[in-house]
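Figure S4 source data
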Amino acid sequence: MIHDVATVNGMYQNWFLDYASYVILERAVPAIEDGLKPVQRRILHAMKEMDDGRFNKVANVIGQTMQYHPHGDASIGDAMVNLGQKDLLIETQGNWGDIRTGDGAAAPRYIEARLSKFALDVVFNPDITEWQMSYDGRKREPTTLPVKFPLLLAQGVEGIAVGLSTKIMPHNFRELCKASIDVLRGREIQLFPDFPTGGLCDVTNYNGGLRGAKIRLRATIEKADKTMLVIRDIPYGTTTTALMESIVKASEANKIKIKKVVDNTAAEVEIQVHLPAGVSPDLTMDALYAFTDCEVSISPNTCVIIEDKPRFVGVEDMLKLSTQKTVRLLERELEIRQNELQEKWHSASLEKIFIENRIYRKIEECETWEDILQTIDAGLRKFVRIEGEKPKANDLRIVLRRAITEDDLTRLTEIRIKRISKFDGFKAEEYIQRLETELAEVADHLANLTRYAINYFEGLLKKYGAGRERKTQLRTFDVVTAQKVAVANQKLYVNYADGFVGYGLKKDEKAVEVTSCSDLDDIIAIRRDGTFTVSKIAEKTFVGKDILHVGVYNKNDDRLVYNMVYLDGASGISFAKRFLVTGITRDKVYDLTKGTKGTKTLYLTANPNSESEVVSIQLSDKAPARVKQFDFDFAELAIKGKGSMGNIVTKQPIKKIQRKSVGDSTLGGREVFFDSVVGRLNHAGHGRYLGAFDTEDTLLRVYKDGSYEVVPPELSLQFDMGNMVLLRKLEPDTVLSAVYYEGESKTHYVKRFSIETATLKKRFTFISETTGSKLLTATAHPEPQVEIKLQRDKKADKETEKLLLHEFIDVKGWKAMGNKLNYFKIHALTLLTDEGPEPERKAAKKKAGPATILRSTTTAAPEAEEPLPEHTGDVDISAADVAQAQAVLKTPKSQLKLF
């Protein structure tokens, strides 16, 4: 019994090792020699045997392949469809499915295939193929095919074996040919994937496809208008159906807001994502990347079989090995061709001598076969000598490259009389000369093998490279944080008395609303004892009593700075500190103080743009200090980590701390963007770039009714797009130029003025307030120009005139009327200059658009008896504006001309 158990154990170990080796070597992992798995190699071999130039039913090919592949027809059929969809080795006919939509191929009996011209040229050569017997010993099949191209890198492959897997990305055909040429020329190469589905790819961490590598793929999303996004390409490995399902799922989970998704995919991918009114397409685009299959990650793992062992090799090294293998195959083909040509030359030379010198007549009297062969041999030796044989004096004999064999003599006896009678010595000589020319050419190729291989790859590129340009665009993506783009579909409440936070406290009488949030946010809660925790948002969570501050926590926010003063319970000393909260573990309790008993927080503020503060500190009446009130400036403190102790403020007991003023940001201005679709400001890069704003910086917005307002860049502000003409950062030297129609005098005026008022959120009217007065256009460009369509007098024809406003009138006060435009009638007025160059940026420069958000276009002037029609501001950007912006972005800075 024990003996039997030992035997089973031994058999299991051997069998499992054999099984694992079989799966790795014979099923899952491709060979470096030809880049094919066994099933793929057997399919191609079967198709070559069947090849007659016509299409064959796939069912017939599967049946032929089953002679070599010891598995079912389903596995062979799936592998063949996979090969056919890669559009390289197999030319297809019929419905072979679509990798973009996920539609499967038709049944094998309905679809047809044949080898492509590329496969016939590159994959097969029976003279240099190594053969082995099939699994049943009845047929001969190739061990590997002599593929003279980096096929493995062109097609890509994926396989899972026992304890081992491989995932090699497909690469571009043209780039592989060019890279092979660079390898032969001794140049450095770098390869990146190219996928048949197109899309965008970030290869920052590709690392040659080795283990641990990672690539990020994105769909190509276009903004059709402010209510619709269009997906044009999808990430590799996904389908349009799966992509749409992921979008719907994210919408149902309230992660994104959409109205509907429509699939219009036909020859090209087109998935329309319709948005509700007031939803930002820019924010939705980022949310699609964060929450749906519009962005996927792939971890390549380039494992191949080299010398019957699995090896992990980078794609650049794999291409070098493939190129070297191709050179060896080309050399072997040349050597075979050289031997064939030499044999032809040898046979043609012997035949020419045999016929021209009538040696065939000397065998008529021979009685035996041996006599015939000897007679022919003796006759030939009078006219030939073997290479290496010492020549005689004045020897004119033809030099043969090898000795004459019995087979050569036998072949001469088989020449027919009809051929001898029609023999043409000149044609025979020409034929021999052509063979010698080709032999010299082959010898030159062998002597210059690298040059020959380069020409070979250049030939492949020219013959088969058309239409195989790169489909996937290489880009570098910013990481889209899910919390950053999640829809703020909840309200955060806090019950300071009982210590609860969450979005389910709406009905709690003691709870107050803090801010808007999403289901994915984390919440930070700082308590009076100086401790804090960060926890996942929930309906109701206990975070501890004596809460001082509650807010949404963003781990990537490096500008939210906390200013704090706390009393150390052990020493009685008060410390001040400025700190960031980074590198936290969720639900862990952190201490911002020294952690001694009796410690408490005296002052705490959260400053979203790292603003400093000046606070007034009043000491206790019992404090022995003579000066019991003084100011403390947080700007004098460096911003440190949450665990820093802080600086001593005073050793005396403090009675009260009050904010006296807010200082500038100590980290510099914060970049502000304006999303015209939702009419709100943001820091996330959505919409137009307005500039970097410090604490005291403000925005200027001009309204259609001829008024302006100065406002702080608060994210809570809502901008009415229908009434705004201009929105921009207010600089100290900003000059506003305006053309307006005065309703009482029915006259057009031009005025230029600086913004002199300092009252925030108060509107000031800078045109006449009489009935019928209307603003035609307003701009902050330093040198504005308008085009006016006018009549100079009643009898004059209409004409067009360009007017430089800065030359027409000087800068005056904002209450001044301005200068008249003394024309009989103005029919239309067009602003030719935009708002000027874009504000200088640093961190988000790639996302910048023009600084101006709105501008005036052609505006019809009023009739003498009628009021001016309402101004029409360009809220939406036209296709022409987009084209112009793209042209500007592509223009070198040295060639840019400011308007």
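Figure S5 source data
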Amino acid sequence: MDFLKASGHVLKTNAGTGKTINLRGTNVGGWLTQEDWMSPLGEFALDRTGWSATASSGPAENVLDGSRSTVWSTGASQSGGEWLRIDLGATTFFDRLSVDDSASPGQYARNLDVETSKDGSAWTSVANQPGAEGVTTVRFALQAARYLRVTQTGDAAVPWSVSELNLFDDPTLHPGSQTATASSSSVNTSPSMAVDGNPSTVWQTGTPQVPGQSITVDLGRVVAADKVLFDSGADTANDYPRSWQVATSEDGSTFVQAASGYGHNRVIQADFQGFKYPRYLRITSTGTADQWWSIAEIAVSTGTTLDRSGWVATATGGDAPVNALDGDVNTRWTTGTAQTAGQKFQVDMGALTTLNDVAIDTAKNTTSEGDWARGFTLELSRDGTTWTTAATGAGTFKATNISFPAQAARYLRLTQTGSALQWWSIGELTAGLYNDDYNLNTTLTQRFGVTGAQAVIDAHRDTWLQTSDLDSIKAAGLNYIRVPIGWNTFLNLDGTWKASPWDRLDWVVREASSRGIYVLLDLHTVPGGGCSWASCGRVGPSPNSFWGTPRYQDQVDDIWKAMASRYAGNPGVAGYDLINEPLVDPAEDAADIQQKNDYFNRLYKTVRAVDPDHVVVMPAFLGADSVAKPATYGWTNVMYEFHPYDMSGPKDWTAQDNLVTNELAAIPDRFAAFGAPLLVGEFSLYYNDDEWARFMAGLNAASVSWSNWAYKVKGAADDGFAYWGQYYDDPQPVPIVNSDDQATFTAKLRQFDTSRFHENTGLVGVIKQFSGGRSAYAPKVVSHDGWTATASSTATNSSPAWGIDGTNGAGWYSGRNMTGDEWYEIDMGAAQSVAMITVQTPTASVDDYPRGFDIEVSTNGVTWTRVATGAGYGWKRPIATAPSTARFIRIAQTGSAPQWWSIDDVTVYSSY
């Protein structure tokens, strides 16, 4: 390896005197820090303290002991009527059940009926569905119940066996604050019955299902929603919509489709594949059936924080404690007097809720910024009488984030323990069960001790990234990796140094260097959280605790002093990425930016005191105006990093195209502003292979270094975030952080080595085109002259030829809803080179894209070779294919949806 240094706006080898080099690579995210959407380190379930289990036969305690190796079993063939019953000890919120039988292959329940009860006497069925091999997941509308009963209602010549049973309370709007209207209602029913939280009351159309019947829900406010569940009810289980559509609206007038599908069971969950921000939801039946359409309950999944509808706040002084729960940080509860020890604020959440974080926030850039609690004690209680201390500490400027080991409580009480002339004010109090790096490590340490927790983390690290992965990165032509590192790679939770913090870093630097791959050391998380979201290590308010806690800032300074000392003079290290995505506030003002820059300068000087040579990477987040220029502090040998994403339009090719255009256009101004090398340290363009190609080519042409996010993602191919990975789709169950025992935890993590993933061949193929530095994106379109087309079916007044006549809005339509057996075939008239194919819907039919596809090519129309397969994703899908020569192209639609499959144009590129 050759030592890199900044020279003007480029990097050069030979300590800055050699040839220009661009870093082109990937992020090995999820390895040395937890990000639950991509890595398998686990999820939190409900706290099972105080639970007990009984069963139709035999002792059932094994389903609650945390071990996948101990099993409860019926001991006889399944015949219907076998049951498990759980007493949760008190009324508890939950909306998801998992039943794990993976320790007993084949012995899963053939069908499950799930019931809940408040008193153990009167039972309500909330879901009924077939079981599945491995882990059966059952979703239902939010329940507030003490008892759960799971009954096996099928037949099989094997026992029903269960190793573990867990419940979850996914963030969901609580019923009571929503209102509803409908296109029609039967006698004695009303739309309000679908949002009243009572599954025994049911809204019904009163007539057989026909397309156009709808129910519209006013959520009462704009919310971040990513899923909606609707249940036809136990007594009307067959009244589910045969096909359906969910649309969202901000104003109740203009609705945009968010999801659609077929009904197969009483409980349907529509996944928006990304967050929408509606006030209104409209569910429309688009099918036909003799049955009425019925909905007993509608449940809307939201964000990460717990919904506070129904919470009741009280306080020992001040006015309107409800202001701290109203969703508006600008309204506040305040003591109205100076802070003195003993002031209290208490919340009744209505039922047992498992949580591991409470945050109190104030309005920014107001006098409330100074009204943070100078000290606090957080207590939790199940009954409002017996209290336990969950956390103590000092508040932080503007906002205070309080984390603690996950536990169930109905009540929380904050006591202010300090003194100050300022009042104590709370603009908003929020709480959640957050699966971030900090809470993962806190819970593992609490459960397994320091040594046991480290053993679990090490099992993941030994599995997730191996030498074979570095070989794959090298084979893709990449010359560098960005290594996101959690602060607790180095430090224990108490701030003391771990015994062997350098093992993995030394290994990756050594092994990468031996393959000619540079390593950028990225401190991805910092104590307290450098921003408000989980990728910064700790979910919380803005600013998160790092920015108001000198002790945390000192710890990061110590980490960089040690890291720079260790790798000084190591040519395999490309540089030091100081803090990932630091953000004091989403609307940072000049004081916020000054605070960040002063701290960057502190870290810069710490590094330079022990390592004068390595490049230091400065985060330009959320833009070039959020970080100081080199001359401001006298920084030298620095690089500036950007993370361009457009997560608001993942299925919109135009949105991603605009992002690429704007980012490439901004490069000259950024060079002029900083006079230093630029790094696009993270980016993803979803399923748009052409935009990936255009962006990487443009960055190469401008001598801008880059690394995509990310190398591996555990999600399935039809998950909008899965395509971010060069390897994806490992469906193995992840550990349950707060209930799996250490052996079970470790065994699950061992199932996520890359050999179990699928290679994202399309994306990897595109990356290989540009990893060597190619700087031209010049797609060559194959002329449509002489093309003919045929199809499996064609709508009246349409023609297959209209799918290859250009993007004129007049397309081919299949004439029937997608069922998975449609095909569209093109004869190009002569053999052509094929490297990429774009399939685009008519502008008036943006939801008519294939839900899944296989693309095959042939030279003779008889022998076919598959060159691409995947999930449909949006109205325009550019698909990089395995390079081939073909005369015939067959596109098979392999998914299902209550829309026709429509094609405005198919574009074939011989190269790009």
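Residues 442 and 493 are 7 Å apart (CA to CA). The longest strand covers residues 82-100.
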